[in-house]
Amino acid sequence: MTEKIDKYKVQAALVRSFFDAFSHGVIESQVEDRNEKTTPQSVKKLMLEHYEHIAPAFFDTMFFPLAAINYKYEDIATLAREAQQRGDDMMALVRTACGNEAYYNAMVEEYKRNFSMLLAGKYLSNADHLEGYVRKAEAETEASVDSDRAIELTVRVVMFAYVRGLRQTGESARFDRSVHLGQVHPQQEDARFDRSAHLGQVHPLRGATLFRLMLDAMNILLLDEAVDFADAEATDLASLFLKVCQTQHNFTVMTNEMDRTYSELMKE
Hints:
With 268 residues, the chain is mainly α. Helix content is 65%, strand content 2%.
């Protein structure tokens, strides 16, 4: 039996993960100097230059995950088809995906909060995100998402947003297609560290960023306080992921979804 995560927390994690991953993809595709990649000047400049690309990328990346926390998978295609038949625009489709006005308004607030930070040349820290994301009103009925589904959707958002950011220059080949991301195929449960040791087998120019993005995403999704990653380079990667995932089950759900999503990206 999987655990449950508050729906507002899941939605906020999805929105933050999109902006974090997409912006890093854009920056890495266009800034060669490592020291310049996340300076306020670089972040602000590139976000302004790609201002008109963010909303379409957000819609392409987020429609399905937002819908999937509010509807059954089998109903989402019908939902999208009916909306298109009505002639709904992008934001109307997103409003439908959010399920009701309360969740839509919360999503808009998270969108503004993350985007405004990037336009100011800054990133929202895990601690600030967890302290300030929109919670449910006292009068609202408690609503939650299965943790397995929440993890899978968050993984998809991180990876799709990151690759869409990288592809803003049209240089999709820079995303290394020669290595199967993670190579984390099921093994016996007692081989968990052997399996997770393969996490680092990704193109070095992309792998370090992707795993940092995933660590942050799992942190804000599964925990209520920020984990200190200051010593990340000196610490075993698998141990870091187990720290934010909390259980071997969550870690396995994450790595399996990374494999599935990578396979989808290679078909694009």
